[in-house]
Amino acid sequence: MNKKEKNSTCDHKQMPRSSYFTLNKNTYILMGVCGCGKSTIGALLAEKTQGIFKDGDIFHSEKNVQKMSSGTPLTDKDREDWLDTISESITSHTGTWPLFVGCSALKRRYREILNSKIKESNVHFIHLKGNLELISERMQKREGHFMKSRMIESQFEDLEDLEEKEKGFSVLIKDSPEQICSQIITRI
Fold first, then answer.
1. 3-state helix vs strand vs coil in the chain, percent to 5
2. What is the pLDDT of residues 73-104, one digit of tens each?
3. Residue 71: which domain range?
4. Phi and psi, residue 52, nearest 5°
């Protein structure tokens, strides 16, 4: 352990608080299909960086939740207010940084909406990437969530990978949450 780490206010599992200055005003949107681990990874990243995690699911309207609960995929129109609400939440964030947000952001168009509406924050996308087989297995084990496993295929149909010009990167989700977080932290 180096001298800087000894003087930090965190344990060995967290980033030294001095990293706050490089992560200040940075928002990392954890994107991907349902069941890829946005909430798990986001909460763990926030813990390790002494940041904040916001789960995009809480910003869905009751109408959207009912629609997904019945097994009907959302349309682009359905997602507009949701993306606006997420953007407003990020723009108005005055708390601790970095800010991690779980949001499927499946299409480039959705990511463009988020980028265009978010002010005062440097936005990066982290695509938690897994194949249909892995996601299906995870969704079968998931309990108490409004997203139904039969909707996985529609999410994969909508998914558009990050392009080179977009700020962000992809991480394969085959490893443990701890290992995935370590990979992400080395890149942010």
1. 50, 15, 35
2. 788 898 899 999 999 999 999 888 999 999 99
3. 23-187
4. -130, 145
